[in-house]
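Researcher: Going back to the complex we discussed earlier. I've cleaned up the inputs and rechecked each line, so this should be the final set. Can you rerun the prediction on the complete assembly and write out the structure?
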Amino acid sequence: MTNIERPTSASEVAAVATPSTSLGALKRPVASTGWKSWLFTVDHKKLGIMYSAAALFFFIVGGLEAVLIRLQLAAPNGKILNADLYNQMFTMHATTMVFLFVMPMAAGLANYFIPLQIGARDVAFPRINAFSFWAFLFGGIFLNLAWFLGGAADGGWFMYAPNSGPVFSPSHGVDFWALGLQITGIASLAGAVNLITTVLNMRAPGMKLMRMPIFTWMQLVVQFLLLFAVPVITVALFLLSFQRNFGATFFDVSAGADPLLWQHLFWIFGHPEVYILILPSFGVISEVLPVFSRKPLFGYPFVVFSGAAIGFVGWGVWAHHMFASGLGPVSVAVFSISTMAIAVPTGVKIVNWTMTIWGGKLQFTVAMKFAVGLIVLFTIGGLSGVTHSVAPSDTQQTDTYYIVAHFHYVLFGGAIFGLFSGFYYWWPKVFGKLLNEKLGTWNFWMMVIGMNMTFGPMHILGLQGQPRRMYQWTEARAGEGFFNFGFWNMFASIGSLVLTTGVLLFLINIVITARNGKVSPLDPWDARSLEWMTTNPPKEHNFDSIPTISHLDEFFHRKYEEDANGQMVKVKTAEQVLKELEDNADAHIHMPSPSYWPIVLAAGLPVIAFGMIYSIPIAIFGGVIVLFGCYGWAIEPSTAPDDDFDPPATTKDVVHVG
Amino acid sequence: MWFTLAEHAVLTADSHADSHGGAHTSTGLSNNKLGMWLFLGSECLLFGGLISTYMLYRGRVGEGPRPSQVFDIPFTSVSSFVLLMSSLTMVLAVSAAHKGDDRNTYLWTTITALLGATFVGGQVYEFTAFYNEGMGFTTSLFSSSFYVLTGFHGVHVTVGIIMLMSIVGIMKRSKVPGSKSETVEMIGLYWHFVDVVWIIIFTLIYLIPA
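Model: Rerun complete. Updated structure for the full complex:
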């Protein structure tokens, strides 16, 4: 626990304190430095960093899988992967990018910035937060274990029946996939409960809902989507596991089952999932664009409500993934129209962003470049999306590369560009150093060019009739003329290497910045929202005193005031604003205490899952770990009271224990 | 199954632990209660998915028995009644906890757990009887989806019983971190939710003929 008494000395002295075991089964972890301080932390900032670091690792894994796919398809009769390995490669590429990169990366940003943006010192349930992270990490590792144990999942990321059944997928890959996603699903669900409670309940005084930064708003919508979407995929995955392991026939047509059941369950989860992936990035660029345009966000309430509208309508469009499955004309018409309708709130957002930068004093930092990149590339992807809502047209495009082109424009050009914008914008906040802007500019342009080279031609390939998930193409099928399959496939593969170089430049930038990056000033971008109203990186307790909020863009309004001519002029520096907070520092700040239980509990889950596949006794052993974790957790107070320390931490000394 | 178990345990356990619960929240509702309500909202979709699956498949009996051939509606009505009564005793437990009356809290909590156990016992008996009448898990789509739906509900009740017994044990050893009455109330919320779900399941499975 961190128990900070003020005023004492300027520097916080770490004193040794030994927590007693009176209230928990294990002694509390006390390390404040070193690996133990990370393993048992419940600090939302450390967890945010760990989430992002793990997600970045999976991004590299998923990226390498993508490069292998492109190398295989570069020329006719590709020999790099065999058919079986190719199936595993595209399945795991998608699964990794969706569940192990974009979702946890957004969760990492949410973890780090939501409490800072709403003026809180931590999330509502710090230990559940730690548990979410570990469950995600162990689930992700578990998913990928299949590579080494007989082959990964190979039914495509939406795992349609009968491809998911034992006949077409005899290895344990699909079992690892189903159970691994259950574990990451638990992580998402626990995270959703936690973050919604945090946003609704932990806001600083005066932080009304309509004064919350947009990033927090969009994350709130995302967490509600997760809360209601995850249980649906949970049901689907259970049914799949029972079919594969216990002989049920839920998706077996020969036994009279309806294969569309899986498709419905999957896409009722799967379509909200699309918005789960994109809305965090919308939130990021809604923070970035106003800062670098030196203007407030245009139509803040419209951006908020269009985000919420996307969240609602997102539940009514799932069957547009199933137009080719013979749903019948009424369903097709309804879902066609609702899909066209959901383009409206998205369009509202794009108009708002454009109006935000319209007439602004633009500063093209790398963060701003990525944000503008998102607007352009996402709009392209959005437009091809609207073409899919037209069912007759979609029937032609289903299962072709046109679809692949579409979702890479919205997910790479949209979600990932937004995340990169966030990296460059928030890096100084998290690490106190500015990422190199020059290298960042190279990073940006390589990614823009690479992504357009890779995914742009896929529109053409798709319209020329190249099917998805085809492990080889032959000269005979390449078509006529110069711009045939052969040309565009080679072009796209070269593009994927350019794209890889772009991402590599980002990784190099991280290393260079860590070694000798420029130390960031307190307020490098002249930012607007609350997370900048503290040190870089923030103190463990975020704010010395909890600020009282009286404006949207509170930090901006503390720095700027209107002069006689109605112009906003700077009246205070960020340092002065921070000084005011520090001068009124709270005397007692109780932070949640580190705990062993989150990681213990999370470690039990993959053991159970492993046992479900191989041997029930192992699963029982995992269950015992989980039960042990639950009881330890239940009787341990989340915040250690003063008398949980030996000697009791009631003196005036600054006790700093983790 | 392990999945739901872990989930409940984590949520209610953190609620056991957070001593600063409802002190200064923006909504006035304590973090623990808000968290529990959100979790139960999520559970609605879990049961929604399972119920949809059952409704789709309840007529597909293949070679196996039809629902009307195996269901013993009077028996299940009695066990349903027992489960509903447990909601009443749960209310009495929460009320006692709010009054700080430990003795009656233990008493009613234990009775609630026993009533819940009676229900689960009835379910085990029912499953055994169905199995003996030739309705195994893999017999037909109807049987699989029936066992999955009622099984998931049974696991939820079992988790509730474990939580009820645990809270009695933890309270007796004075090891409840945070507010005792709120912890009991949280388990109560969960318990009532599971009961309400049973009313829906009982109506759809047993009372409305396929």
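Model: Worth noting: Residues 2-13+30-58+68-207 of chain B form a domain with the Four Helix Bundle (Hemerythrin (Met), subunit A) fold (CATH 1.20.120.80).
Researcher: Good, that matches what I expected from the previous run.
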